[in-house]
Amino acid sequence: MPIVGPESLAQVCETLLSGRAVALPTETVYGLACNALDPSAVALVFDLKGRPATNPLIVHVRDAQHAASLAGDWPHEAELLSARFWPGPLTLVVAKGTAIPLIASAGLGTVGLRSPAHPVFRGVMEICGLPLAAPSANRSGSLSPTTAEAALEAMGLPDLLVMDGGPCAWGIESTVLDLSSGTPEILRPGPIGIEELEACLGRRVEVGGHGASPRSPGQIGLHYAPRTPLRLADRLALADVGLTFEEPSAGTQIQMPADPVRYGAMLFASLRVLDSLGARVIVVQRPPQGPAWAAVNDRLLRASLR
Ligand code: AMP
Ligand code: MG
What we know:
The protein is α/β, with parallel strands linked by helices. The protein folds into 2 domains: 3-207, DHBP synthase; 230-303, no CATH class. The chain contains 9 helices and 15 strands. It has a 9-stranded mixed sheet with strand order 2-3-7-4-6-5-9-10-11, sandwiched between helices. Strands 12-15-13-14 form a 4-stranded parallel sheet, covered by helices on one side. Helix 1 packs across helix 5 (119-128). Magnesium ion is lined by residues 135-136, 144.
């Protein structure tokens, strides 16, 4: 059985300790996890995902102390933010310590660190005692999985162990915040918004332009995309296949919540359903602008670049 429950914790940890990969639930999306300290395990994850070697992995840790031990430098801002938002959907980019192999950080001198909240992921880290590199459990460029079934399907590997932790609460990837230069800068919008970050730090936070930051190589161009081309529109036509805020006019339309958090939690699963219909195009009614919608709008914009 590739999809397993908590009874398989020992088998999952053994697999990780032997340098192989497993799919694990986090509160953001399902991740393809491996021992972050083992360069050949990390190489395997890049290979299984078809991920470009230039796109760094996020390393998952137990807590701030664990993070600091893997960082080359753990600035005061990292201390404040981790105390406030960890465990949770915030990745902090800081100078890399020597224990993390260069392949994990795509050759960069920095590393993205995050302490996830999902009890299954935390249980695995606790038992195997390793920091885990875990990019989303899908082939590079496609939709992130938010259920165990979607992770298994998205990787297309019949023997892959996938630990079931239920549907992901956030359903959207972590906020990535760069603390490695003078000014904190959001490299990827996510569940933790700019206002919360600024309030915690008591200072301004910059927003990296779309794909503009050379420090965030994975954020360039098309990403998070269904196979079917995706187009944004002010509203859906009668026969469109897509996501709408209004009363659906066809069975191929999904009505989305007006709340950005609930919208984000449904987004990838909904696109997966529509993607399976083999339509010519998926039309998505443009969500509102504003900070609360930044993560959703970022994913939709990037899914529409083709
Ligand atoms: P994923 O694992 O697919 O959610 O993607 C992780 C993303 O986090 C990457 O695509 C980068 O944009 C960002 N990231 C991770 N590590 C770093 C780093 N050291 N410097 C800049 N961005 C990073
Ligand atoms: Mg990904």
